[in-house]
């Protein structure tokens, strides 16, 4: 029992954080829920209003105190500005990783500690383990919902102060608990995509904030085969929405590269085209969660959240961190987060350069 331990739970209005509240109460913690307001909700892009209503409903039912904290300025300064600057560079960032790093496990953690909390808690599908006084990040027990990818740039000392109540559970177990308690969030659909964009067209959203310049689409030999609407509208490996077809063999085209200097979108035809695959790539801003390993090191990597694990070696080549893959890989995208694992342990990550 943890009757004297105070926990500040980040509640999103979803089923995972709702069940986290139940599990923490059952374990005897003194639980206070906090709803984070990270984006202005009067622009029609975010579901914050509906989510807050669900937080109030669940907390009232479970007899848990709840508050709202406004991190809109921190989110714009630390996450949204990063998101826009990366797209200006022609890269494809992951704002959810940055949100965890800068908001949930930094700004929110600082806020909670000001209330003399012993821990914060989140509804992420992830686990932590303490070994000889060091805190390690582990994958969640449900391989289909594991969210360690998004936590791969969170400091070990922040994880040491964090509880992940649903980390040992499968998603269907979480929903069963919510239904048992007849929570309003029991059947609520999981949120997808980026909060501040919501259901809006992604390219239209970018065009509100960044200048887009149309240009030429070329194949690997430099032949002009179409026009693009602006390089920021495309990502490496993309197939749909390029706007070209019926050329050559008739096979689909994929985005292979971007030439920012000449404003060219470079495409390759056919899913097996060698131009789409890489045997190695460089990562920058490498971050280690708990300890810095000796390099070179054998590990597995994920180049995006839903990607499969790929066997690789990470080495330091004259100050450059190079990921060498055991088999060539399609869709290696600059700006995306490459996460490093050894078994269930998440070691850290780097940004694909």
From TrEMBL:
Annotated spans, Interaction with tRNA: 145-147, 304-305
Reactions performed catalytically: S-sulfanyl-L-cysteinyl-[protein] + uridine(34) in tRNA + AH2 + ATP = 2-thiouridine(34) in tRNA + L-cysteinyl-[protein] + A + AMP + diphosphate + H(+)
Domain (tRNA-specific 2-thiouridylase MnmA-like C-terminal) ranges: 279-352
GO molecular function: ATP binding; tRNA binding; tRNA-uridine 2-sulfurtransferase activity
Cellular compartments annotated: Cytoplasm
Residues at the active site: 99, 195
GO biological process, one term: tRNA wobble position uridine thiolation
Enzyme class: transferase
Pfam families linked: tRNA_Me_trans, tRNA_Me_trans_C, tRNA_Me_trans_M
Keyword Acetylation annotated: no
Domain of life: Bacteria
Keyword tags: ATP-binding, Cytoplasm, Disulfide bond, Nucleotide-binding, RNA-binding, Transferase, tRNA processing, tRNA-binding
Chain residue ranges for the region called Interaction with target base in tRNA: 94-96
Site (Interaction with tRNA): 124, 336
tRNA-specific 2-thiouridylase MnmA-like central domain segment(s): 204-269
EC number: 2.8.1.13
Keyword field contains Cell division: no
HAMAP family associated with the record: tRNA_thiouridyl_MnmA (MF_00144)
Family per similarity comment: Belongs to the MnmA/TRMU family.
Function: Catalyzes the 2-thiolation of uridine at the wobble position (U34) of tRNA, leading to the formation of s(2)U34.
PANTHER family: MITOCHONDRIAL TRNA-SPECIFIC 2-THIOURIDYLASE 1, TRNA 5-METHYLAMINOMETHYL-2-THIOURIDYLATE -METHYLTRANSFERASE
Entry protein name: tRNA-specific 2-thiouridylase MnmA
Record organism: Peptoniphilus faecalis
